[in-house]
Amino acid sequence: MKQSLAGLSLAELTELLKPLPVFRARQLFRHLCCGTRSFAEMTDFSLSLRESMERRFSLYSSEVAQRFVDRDGSVKLQIDLSDGARIEAVLLSDENGRKTACLSTQAGCPMGCVFCKTGSLGFNRNLTSAEMTEQFLHLQAAAGSRINNVVVMGMGEPLLNMTELRKTLLFLTGQDFGSRQFSKRKVTVSTCGIVAGIRELAENGPDVRIALSLTTADEDLRGRLMKASAANPLSALRNALLSYQQRRKRRITLEAVLLGGVNTRQKDVDALTVFVQGLDVAVNLIPWNPVVGALFEGAPLRQPSRAETDGFAERLRKQKVNVTVRLKRGRGIAGACGQLGRLSDTRV
Ligand code: SF4
User: Fold this and answer.
1) Which of 20, 213, 255, 267 is most buried as measured by Cβ atoms within 10 A of its Cβ?
2) Is 343 within the bounds of a domain?
3) Dist. CA 19 → ligand 1 center (Å)
4) In terms of pTM, does the model score above 0.85?
């Protein structure tokens, strides 16, 4: 199989192209970052050099298998990896035209959150940094204009794939990425709460934002909804967030997927109010995006009603919790939070 080039760092490309001079690696790197799709388009290389590169290398290791466009402008890409695994990446557009790329870090996910389609697929494997960066490049081609933010919130638990995640984050926020370089505050990593991973980010960076998918601060209920959370108890999680905040001086986003009649009780308001004390956090409430067949302890999950969502938010506000109800973007293409991997032809 040919070595693919997209997603490699400038240093790696330089090494690979030796004995060609460094400026050739720079040229190639620029092409890859701009989304050039074939060697033939690289007319600043001689024909013989293009032919020789084409014999040795391919540009991408993955390919877009299907593309879905929602009425709200969001785009979901189903992407086939070189070993046949299929993953999904989403481009979310807000009402002001700002675009956010949502990247996956694993094929499937081992965490088994009951409200999430990806969790029901089981775990296949970690993605490489190149496979994550390629998702961004595919989304960039689909966007047709600048992407403003990156969230690592797609399929998989990012902090269980730390080495490759770090390489991807350094690529996207690195100077080599030129005018496309992301400020670290425009990049958010979402975790369901891997204590060791949060501590690792606090200690060694990179200095991106983090979002914690908390769901509820009631430990017992959380353990039943997010099966892998038992290894990361809330007290340890809160301490890890505190040390992240002390070290990185960044506000943390807490996310709670609201499940009708399950985690919208007064007990959840009280537990969340206690959990956020002393933390600089913004709480995002996300009314559950439906996943066909999702059950909680034998009963079908349901979306919260509007009144249930607003009432929950209001009770938190009364406790002086900084809370926002999030819009449901990408739902029409099963590209919203928790829905990735939903289409019947998806396999991992
Ligand atoms: S919510 Fe995130 S961590 Fe939980 S199963 Fe889904 S992808 Fe995995």
Assistant:
1) 213
2) no
3) 44
4) yes
